[in-house]
Specification:
Strand order of the largest sheet: 12-13-16-22-23-24-27-28
Strand content: 15-25%
Low-confidence stretches: 603-608, 827-831
Mean pLDDT: 90
Structural class: alpha/beta
Oligomer: single chain
Largest sheet: 8 strands, parallel, barrel
């Protein structure tokens, strides 16, 4: 158990940390404590992290309560706390006194990603992601074939570019409709929907263990989006953004220049359509300055019309106006006031400032005229300033146009667009123009027609070096007029305003888009994040997180500043920032990025769980190349792909790539122009096939090994990083595990330049690696092969076939071709170092070593390792023999253990504290921690399974091992105290531990673990070999459940079962330690641990026989099952099998169902066990040959089993009615007097078994009220008197079987005798069987017909299409309660049900009762439903005081087995489609049980959970019937 992670934030006055990143994990606690500047002040801390049960709202803050643990006035210990359980970004602020805010910041909580059918966590550092351009995937039904490449290359996450309908340009990021799936994904005749995409994503998650994310694009929409035409207010147009008018005018003029150049009108001025050189560029400048700028006169939009202004001023002066100084505040500056509508010469000046600035010397006309002339001169100056400012803008525009044309048409690294045409204009258009173009003059007139100018929408793009926190389309930005926008002419920039009220349609539309995305994908990549308005992204991500709380958010930011990056990460809760290895100019920088993006330095201290919160850098998603950047093969060389990938893979963060990199596609796969499809996976693909790839293609094999290594290193806690720049091309990255001190060292020789053209040195420096190299994890290099050269395929995106990877994995150093030799040198007294001399570390190659403990320690553990080889050959390295090996260690442990019985295994592996105490011991208690769950190995292994993955060597368990030999001795001494083989195993441990005790103490935990894991796995192997082939060949889950059989089936110090007949063969005997007499030692079955494990409360008839089929028959423990059946048969009394066995002599016969479960088990025994019907002839020693006999000793009265069976049946038909012996508080302190009266009879008309009364509970739902305060004492919560549905089903099953046995001559009776009115009558088993068959559906089915004549109480029906829980209850409404019991009858007697009715009832049960692990015991719609069981709570509430609701809602596990088995059985009758869906459901449900068992330290399944699978502390931690019925489901499957 690791302590809770607590981070302490010390608050300091006036400290604003908005640009500091604090990352936390879910489950962490954040404590705010007062720094010295705030202690003693009344500080209040507010946060928008939602209070318990509230929804997150960005603007909703609440105050945190202060906790003062010392209860003193001193503030140094005072803190307030946040339990961080929800991922996202949260703000806090604090203030004191009347200061609302005197500091604050953000906390970013990482999401928890879950993958696989079992929903296991995928750590962020484990992520290996690959990007796909979605449009290149083809139709949806072909996706898996293409995506399989990612799976087979070892990635665990896929990033899809947007899946929506694309715009005209076909760019992946220009979306025509954010709500519609791209129709390209639907082949002819098929229309796929988001649901289909969601199902595919779910399938990839569950079956491939891979997660999927996709982009969200908030900044723009495709220019041809239909909705933007209807809602032009959603973009920046000339009506809502008149400041763009001058830029639009320039844009139109440039379009007309394009047309003129394309039409050859400028050829005579040296400007042809095909622009090829700098003279042509110079000619463009000439055209701009001579033809364009003078004609469009952009300065006029920024100037004032001088004369009207002067006239207005003259009028004011003549009227004697004086300045209002309050308005000018004494600032005498005349400025142009920009016309908000941006009309030519529409600007004005402030007349108040004019009056203040230009004061006439008198009132004469001459003085006024002078003043007006001064103003005129000043206005002309101001206009001139405006003119020059616009000229600066035009100069910048000219430079930008020049640069764009140069790149587009002349540069070698540019796209070389060819001649200027209307399709490829001179420069990209900045605005849409959805009308026919006329002359420039006519176009420009449209500026004054709002109904048209509202459709001139500004395109989006990006601006080099711009402030990312500013919106370049808003007023105040000159990006459009200066032509600084690198424009995407297929996309319209969206205008959100300040909130939804500014553009309701756009906000609603984008929120819906966001919710669709979050519903189907675990995460999003924020496209164009740095220029998406922060408040928009913030609101949209909040909407996404309300759909998917653990939303994974990634983004690529181009801010150039970590502080500004942090603003985005903080505000948006970005989980990982995309970083790219391609940004590194050399290998040294590439290595530096690895060190920068994750992990602690090697040798870092183990951090305490409570520590100061320190700033961190954003979690990185480190990619070898992103999908929208140039191809590394073009920039570096094909040989660099592998080593650079290896460097990336060694980083302690999320890593990844883009599809095409691994196949060595030698060009950028364009997000705009690429229309070919990705190749598919085919293990048999030929190298020359462009449409298919496999492990031999490109560097795929190398990437698979690197992805595996990356995921292994992250999973196993190799979280310390060291980067060594060996020489200018070689980078060695060490990932080190601080708890095992094992390392992986990857040596990568980059090839930024192609080795064919660049001379690389043959001298590779040797390397010193501290410690002992265990293996070469992988060595790989890119090699050429003869498969022809690269030809770009027309249909498929193909890579270079002439290269592949030569790779070896997991080889010894001696088998390496890269390493020539490895010598050992010594540095100082005890540090050993291995020196590596390289032979073939050619450019483009990679080798990774696994390094373990230094030889000094290896020598100390050598002998121990030698003895561990039998468990794991890896221990061969560094092992050595001991000439004085003790005899017990000379034979392998398997040999010793193979003599053990499964009962011995119970003692070796399990036994809870109560069982251990019965033997005079107890479970090992770790001081300062807690006792282990079991005395056996599982008790230790459960803890070690927790400690091992985290390598938590600071655990009290490990500490206890380091401190002394107590636990070590406990393991061996406990076993030696037993007799026989167990003692031998104890001696084996003792001998192994003799070595263990003499190695360095800090190594003891890991070797103790190795010994125990070896012994444990050996024990499991031996155990499973003694079980059925179903278990031996079964899944891990089957084996886990089958271990439940070992867990529950034991021979205690005192026999729990009554003795069997001495005439019976194959009964185990032992000499009693107490009496020293020979006694039987049969295995008995515990009901559950820890509460029902020892003494009188161990064995229960009902529990035993519900669990026996799964735990004993399915697992192949036939003889032991036979003995249990016969032992209970011997206790038959009144025709009943006991509820509480009490060794037979203390039995209570107070349940009506145990006998029927016993009969069902005999039937199952006969059908499942070879020659199983032989059991019918076995002798049964009757303890109570008559109802009133005193208990007789074994062998006094023997009967054959079939006679006992017949007696049980006959007694029921004759009617069982008696009062329990010793009735009263001495046997049940809660039961009322009437409750001790037991009745079990058969209705002669229907054949239904019925019985009980309202004061007792004779079925498994047997909770007796215990609260005097709530007045439920002595009243059963669920009497289920009358005919309980499962008993009727079990009776029918028994009858069907007995009829069949009689026909086969295996059962001599064909009828039961009835004594009625002094007459001897009889009823045949066949007739009894027929009666139930004829009446069951009539009486139990609640039909949809409101006038059903069979319905006695139509007024009580509240659900139709179900089966009643009972028939004829004393409280009739109880019959109609929906409970899971009918599914038991469906499994044992399916013939009673019509398929359609059964299926409907099962579906209702699934909807209403199915929980995560168990079945709700009562319909949640029922007024007395309560899903939380608390047996200690005593209050006035009749319905749940003292756990009265034990079976009125809590989710019991064992009925889920019958429910799922019933689903399977009836699904088979409804066709393949239904069956397949059912199997999916069953596996889905069972996966949760598997996860629970894997994680449970008890290695079991609980008796019950509270509602929705919540843990119930009053439940048995592991219950026999829970394990059994789940195992039976797997057996049925």
């Amino acid at each position: 158990m690791t302590a809770k992670q607590v981070r302490v934030m010390v608050l300091n006055d006036m400290e604003k940390l908005d640009r500091t990143l604090f990352r936390m994990e879910q489950g962490y606690e954040l404590q705010f404590r007062l720094g010295p500047t705030l202690q003693g002040k009344h500080v209040h801390v507010h946060t928008n992290y939602p209070a318990e049960g509230e929804r997150f709202e960005h603007h909703k803050f609440h105050a945190l309560d202060w906790i003062n643990p010392t209860e003193r006035e001193d503030d140094s210990d005072k803190f307030c706390t946040l339990d961080l359980k929800i991922s996202g970004s949260y703000q806090y602020y604090f203030g004191h006194g009347d200061k609302e805010k005197s500091g604050g910041g953000y906390i970013v909580v990482d999401p928890v990603l879950r993958v696989g059918a079992d929903n296991h966590v995928l750590p962020l550092d484990c992520i290996s992601i690959q990007t796909y351009l979605s449009k290149c995937l083809g139709p949806l039904d072909e996706w898996l074939d293409r995506l399989r490449v990612t799976k087979e290359t070892g990635y665990n996450m896929i990033h899809f570019t947007p899946l929506q309908t694309l715009g005209e340009s076909r760019s992946c990021y220009s979306l025509a409709d954010q709500l519609e799936l791209n129709p390209d994904f639907s082949p002819p005749g098929q229309t796929y929907t988001w649901t289909d995409v969601g199902n595919l994503v779910e399938k990839i998650k569950n079956e491939w263990n891979m997660l999927c994310i996709t982009d969200v694009v908030y900044n723009h929409t495709a220019a041809n989006s239909k909705w933007i035409k209807k809602h032009p207010e959603c973009g920046y147009n000339l009506v809502n953004s008149p400041h763009l008018k001058p830029a639009w005018v320039l844009d139109r003029a440039l379009w007309h220049i394009t047309c003129a150049i394309a039409d050859g009108k400028y050829e005579d001025r040296g400007l042809p359509a095909l622009i090829q050189n700098h003279e042509h560029l110079h000619a463009i400048r000439g055209v701009l300055w001579q033809d364009v700028f003078p004609k469009i006169k952009l300065w006029e939009f920024f100037q004032v019309k001088v004369e009207p202004m002067v006239e207005q001023f003259r009028d004011l002066l003549q009227s004697g106006a004086k300045p209002d100084r309050s308005k000018t505040e004494g600032k005498q500056q005349l400025k142009i006031i920009q016309d908000p509508q941006y009309r030519r010469f529409g600007n004005t000046v402030d007349m108040n400032s004019a009056l203040e600035t230009f004061v006439p010397h008198g009132n004469s006309p001459g003085a006024i005229e002078d003043c007006c002339n001064w103003l005129r001169r000043r206005l002309e100056e101001l206009n001139n300033e405006q003119y020059h400012e616009i000229r600066h803008h035009q100069e910048q525009a000219t430079n930008c146009i020049d640069g764009t044309v140069s790149y587009d048409r002349i540069a070698d690294h540019g796209p070389k667009l060819g001649p200027v045409t209307r399709k490829h204009p001179l420069v990209t258009r900045y605005f849409t123009f959805p009308f026919e173009s006329a002359t420039l003059e006519q176009d420009l007139e449209l500026i004054n027609q709002p109904e048209k100018s509202c459709h001139f929408l500004a395109h989006n793009g990006w601006v080099m070096g711009d402030d990312p926190l500013r919106n370049f389309a808003e007023p105040g930005s000159n990006v459009y007029i200066r032509r600084e926008l690198i424009c995407w002419d297929d996309s319209v920039k969206l205008r959100y305003g300040n909130g939804p009220e500014d553009c309701p349609y756009l906000w609603a539309h984008m929120q819906k888009y966001t919710e669709i995305t979050a519903k189907h994908f675990v995460g999003v990549r924020l496209d164009n994040c740095h220029s998406t308005p922060l408040h928009v992204a913030e609101a949209m991500l909040a909407a996404a997180r309300s759909v998917r709380p653990n939303l994974y958010v990634i983004a690529e930011l181009f801010t150039g500043s970590e502080l500004i990056d942090n603003v985005f990460v903080n505000r948006l809760g970005i989980t990982s920032l995309i970083r790219e290895a391609m940004s590194a100019g050399d290998s040294h920088e590439e290595g530096r990025l690895v060190y920068r993006y994750g992990g602690e330095p090697v040798g870092a201290f183990l951090q305490p769980s409570l520590r100061p919160l320190v700033p961190s850098i954003a979690h990185a998603m480190f990619l070898d190349v992103t999908h929208d950047n140039e191809c590394p093969i073009q920039i570096r060389s094909v040989y660099d792909s592998l080593p650079s990938s290896a460097i990336v893979s060694m980083a302690c963060c999320a890593t990844g790539s883009t599809r095409g990199y691994d196949e060595l596609v030698p060009h950028q796969i364009s997000v705009v122009s690429e229309e070919r499809f990705y190749s598919k996976w085919n293990p048999q693909a030929k190298p020359s096939s462009p449409e298919e790839v496999n492990l031999q293609s490109g560097i795929i094999a190398g990437k698979l090994a690197l992805n595996r290594l990356h995921q292994e290193l992250a999973t196993k806690g190799f979280n310390q990083v060291f980067v060594d720049q060996v020489d200018e091309d070689i980078v060695a990255v060490t990932r080190h595990c601080p708890s095992t001190h094992q390392s992986v060292v990857a040596v990568c020789r980059t090839a930024f330049k192609n080795p064919k053209h660049h001379r690389y040195s043959n001298e590779v420096p040797s390397m010193c690696i501290p410690g002992k190299i265990e293996e070469v994890v992988l060595e790989a290099r890119t090699v050429e092969r003869q498969t022809g050269s690269y030809i770009k395929d027309e249909r498929s995106i193909n890579g270079m076939p002439g290269y592949t990877v030569e790779i070896k994995e997991h080889i010894q150093l001696k088998d390496s071709k890269v390493v020539r030799q490895a010598g050992v040198t010594s540095r100082g007294r005890s540090e050993y170092v291995q020196e590596i001399v390289f032979e073939q570390l050619t450019p483009g190659s990679v080798i990774a070593f696994r390094v373990s403990l230094d030889p000094k320690s290896q020598e100390l553990v050598g002998v121990l390792r030698h003895h561990l080889i039998q468990f794991n050959p890896l221990y061969k390295a560094g092992s050595q023999t001991d000439p004085n090996t003790p005899d017990i260690l000379k034979s392998p442990l398997t040999e010793i253990m193979s003599k053990m019985t499964l009962a011995d295994m119970n003692a070796l592996l399990f036994r809870c504290d109560a069982e251990e105490k019965e033997d005079g011991g107890g479970c090992y208690n770790i001081p300062g921690w807690k006792p282990l769950k079991y005395g056996g190995l599982q008790g230790l292994l459960s803890v070690m399974a927790d400690v091992r993955p985290k390598n938590d060597l600071g655990h009290p368990f490990c500490d206890n091992l380091r401190q002394g030999d107590w636990m070590i001795d406990y393991v061996s001494n406990r076993l030696i105290s037993h007799r026989g083989t167990l003692a031998e195993v104890g001696q084996w441990f003792q001998a192994m531990f003799a070595y263990l005790k003499h190695i360095p103490r800090y190594l003891i935990p890991c070797y103790f673990d190795a010994i125990l894991v070896g012994a444990y796995t050996t024990a499991l192997d031996v155990t499973f070999k003694q079980m059925s082939s179903f278990v031996q060949n079964g899944s891990t889950f089957v084996k886990l459940l089958a271990l439940g059989s070992v867990q529950m089936c034991a021979v205690g110090r005192f026999p729990a079962l009554p003795p069997l007949s001495p005439a019976l063969s194959d009964v185990p005997y032992r000499v009693s330690e107490i009496t020293m007499q020979k006694e039987q030692c049969c295995v008995s079955l515990a009901a559950g641990l820890p509460h029902f494990s020892a003494g009188i409360f161990r064995c229960w008839g009902r529990d035993t026989f519900i669990a026996l089929r799964g735990l004993m028959l399915v697992t192949g423990r036939h003889l032991e099952a036979r003995n249990i059946i016969l032992a209970f048969a011997g206790t038959l009394r009144h025709g009943l099998i006991p509820n509480l066995l009490g060794e037979g002599v203390g039995a209570r016969f107070n349940c009506r169902d145990a006998v029927w479960w016993w009969l069902q088990c005999i039937q199952d025994y006969c059908t499942m066990v070879p020659s199983g019907t032989d059991i019918l002839q076995c002798p049964v020693s009757r303890m109570y040959p008559t109802d009133d006999s005193k208990p007789l000793t074994a062998g006094t009265v023997d009967q054959l089993l079939y006679e006992v069976i017949h007696e049980a049946m006959e007694r029921h038909m004759q009617g069982i009615e008696f009062r329990e012996r010793n009735a009263g508080p001495q046997i049940d302190c809660n039961m009322r007097d009437e409750g001790f009266n037991i009745v079990a009879k058969v209705n002669p008309d229907t054949g239904f078994v019925y019985g009980g009364n309202r004061f007792n509970c004779g079925t498994w739902m047997d909770k007796m009220g215990e609260s005097e305060r709530a007045r439920n004492k002595g009243i059963p919560a669920t009497p289920r008197d009358g005919s309980a549905v499962e008993i009727v089903g079990l009776c029918k099953s028994a009858l069907r079987w007995l009829v069949e046995l009689h026909k086969q001559g295996l059962f001599p009776y064909n009828s039961v005798a009835i004594h009625k009115d002094g007459k001897q009558l009889s009823m045949s088993y066949e007739e009894w069987d027929r009666k139930i068959q004829q009446n069951f559906e009539k009486m139990f089915y609640v039909s949809h017909d409101p006038n059903d004549p069979n319905e006695k109480h139509p007024e009580l029906v509240h659900k139709r299409g179900i089966y009643k829980d009972s028939y004829g209850a004393s409280s009739p409404w109880c019959d109609y309660q929906l409970r899971p019991n009918f599914s038991i009858a469906m499994v044992v007697a399916p013939e009673l049900f019509t398929v359609e009715h059964a299926w409907e009832a099962l579906n209702i049960a699934e909807e209403k009762l199915l929980g995560p692990l168990g079945m709700k015991t009562l319909d949640p719609d029922d007024m007395v439903y309560c899903g939380v069981y608390d047996n200690s709570l005593d209050n006035d509430n009749y319905n749940f005081a003292r756990g009265f609701n034990y079976h009125q809602g809590p989710e019991w596990l064992w009925p889920i087995g019958y429910f799922l088995r019933a689903k399977i059985n009836f699904a088979k009758k409804l066709g393949k489609d239904t069956y397949d869906k059912t199997v999916y459901l069953v596996k889905n449900v069972l996966s949760r049980h598997y996860v629970h068992m894997e994680r449970s330290s008890w290695k079991g399944l609980p008796e019950l959970t509270n509602e929705n699978g919540q843990y119930c502390s009053f439940s048995c931690e592991t219950q026999a019937w829970s394990l059994a019925t789940v195992l039976e489901v797997l057996h049925d499957l």
